[in-house]
Design a protein that fits this description.
With 270 residues, the protein is mainly α. It contains 6 helices and 2 strands. It has helices at 31-36, 39-108, 114-169, 175-196, 219-228, 265-268, and strands spanning 26-28, 201-203. The protein has a two-stranded parallel ribbon. Helix 2 (39-108) runs antiparallel to helix 3 and helix 4 (175-196) crosses helix 5 (219-228). It starts with 25 loop residues before the first strand and ends with a helix.
Length: 270
């Protein structure tokens, strides 16, 4: 099953100004890296991973059913989309044919008896009605599918909530709460470290085209300060040569913990 916690890199995490005053002392922080390595999020992710390993059998049956239903809904949605596209193509042909037949009838009408005119009109109307019935059938299928997708999403969300509640009851953190805690703490710690080092403006490294003094990057100092605030969290040692981007990540299961995200019901409604 996929992990519940997703450590987001939030571009809006650190408010920066595009124009620096000449009097500003500029420093740099990579908030994305700090978030990726925030001890609260890493600890929560590890705990949830362990929780899922211990409780996988408990959720496996429902997870499998949701995944199978999602697969069927995806196939039904794809078939519906194909039929709708084919009907759109047919519409142009039908409209052109009916227009041509109506024009021909108007041209021939003066030489035709009333009975013949009515017969040809009925034939044209029959073709138009047949196409209207096809359109109505597609619309009905779309409505029925929308109800199925909505029902599926409700049950998928309930399953998601069940996992979150079980995780929380076992001592784990709510992912939204953990995320908010980490964001708030990163913001406040950046300010604390920046003031302590005498910086009046902090930018993200991606903004700088050139920086001669690498010591102005206080990313690691911010992360160390955050870690110092959580001495109770003991994380497994990471490999010394591991790149920053390799910090543990996790994807949030939507609808089910394994496969259901492959096609969300919202997509199926298209």
């Amino acid at each position: 099953m996929k992990k519940l916690f997703k450590i987001n890199v939030l571009s809006a995490l650190l408010a920066t100004s595009a124009v620096a005053n000449a009097a500003d002392t500029i420093g740099f922080v990579d908030p994305g890296y700090v978030m990726q390595n925030h001890p609260v999020l890493l600890d929560a992710s590890i705990k949830f991973e362990n929780f899922m390993k211990e409780n996988q059998a408990k959720f496996a049956d429902e997870d499998k059913k949701l995944a199978e239903e999602n697969k069927k809904l995806t196939a039904e949605r794809d078939a519906l989309n194909i039929d709708a596209k084919n009907l759109q193509k047919e519409q142009a042909t039908v409209e052109a044919t009916l227009k041509k037949e109506v024009a021909q009838l108007e041209k021939d009408a003066p030489r035709l008896r009333a009975k013949e005119i009515q017969a040809r009109q009925a034939k044209i109307e029959g073709k138009a009605k047949a196409f209207e019935n096809k359109v109505a059938a597609i619309q009905k299928r779309e409505q029925e599918f929308a109800k199925k997708a909505e029902d599926f999403q409700k049950r998928a969300d309930a399953f998601q909530q069940k996992i979150e509640d079980a995780n929380k009851n076992s001592g784990g953190l709510n992912p939204q709460e953990a995320q908010k805690t980490a964001i708030d703490e990163v913001n406040s710690t950046i300010k604390e470290v920046a003031k302590a080092k005498g910086y009046t403006l902090i930018l993200q490294p991606q903004i700088a085209l050139y920086a001669e003094d690498e010591s102005k990057d206080i990313t690691e100092a911010v992360l160390d300060a955050i870690k110092a605030k959580h001495p109770e969290i003991k994380l497994p040692e990471q490999k010394a040569d591991a790149p920053k981007a390799d910090a543990p990540k996790a994807d949030a299961p939507k609808a089910d913990a394994t496969k259901t995200e492959q096609a969300k019901p919202e997509e199926a409604k298209k």
